[in-house]
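Quick entry between incubations.
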Amino acid sequence: GAGVSQSPSNKVTEKGKDVELRCDPISGHTALYWYRQSLGQGLEFLIYFQGNSAPDKSGLPSDRFSAERTGGSVSTLTIQRTQQEDSAVYLCASSWLGGITGELFFGEGSRLTVL
Amino acid sequence: GQQVMQIPQYQHVQEGEDFTTYCNSSTTLSNIQWYKQRPGGHPVFLIQLVKSGEVKKQKRLTFQFGEAKKNSSLHITATQTTDVGTYFCAGMGMSTSYGKLTFGQGTILTVHP
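Done. Structure below.
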């Protein structure tokens, strides 16, 4: 597709279960971000991948959160032993730093609800 | 680490009034970007400013980058109901992870018809 694709769009899970959220960035984009957004709130930075560099994990809220990016393309955000406070929309964004603006293109997000 | 502060957090205006949101960085920026997020949507890129003192206009929107490249503003003239949403600034620092953008908290704009 032409845009950033995220799946699932909605996920309802029980407290304590693990979840995986997937992001397919725009082809050729070297930078990929994960953000978390609670209702009516701003964008909480989680993790940043840039090319082959070590990811910037400084935003991950706890060791229950992890992310990987395989082959410089698809990324998976994993949340282990989910808690109710993990409920939010998880947004993925990608960009090509070699472009004119380096603008971020966001996916539609994955809405996670932890019961 | 780098911090980007944005004020105000909320702004309620009557249609036709002007609106301004301000963004301040704790460090000098290489560039700053602005995004708009409509209710229920995802952030969408509006513009990027790169040069010290730069001013850019898009119809009723005016974007400014400070001389010290540490602050920026977005001004909307004569707001319309279609301007409703959250406006985010995002700064790219000079000493953080290469290319990493740090977002402000956003300003939620409500326009009353």
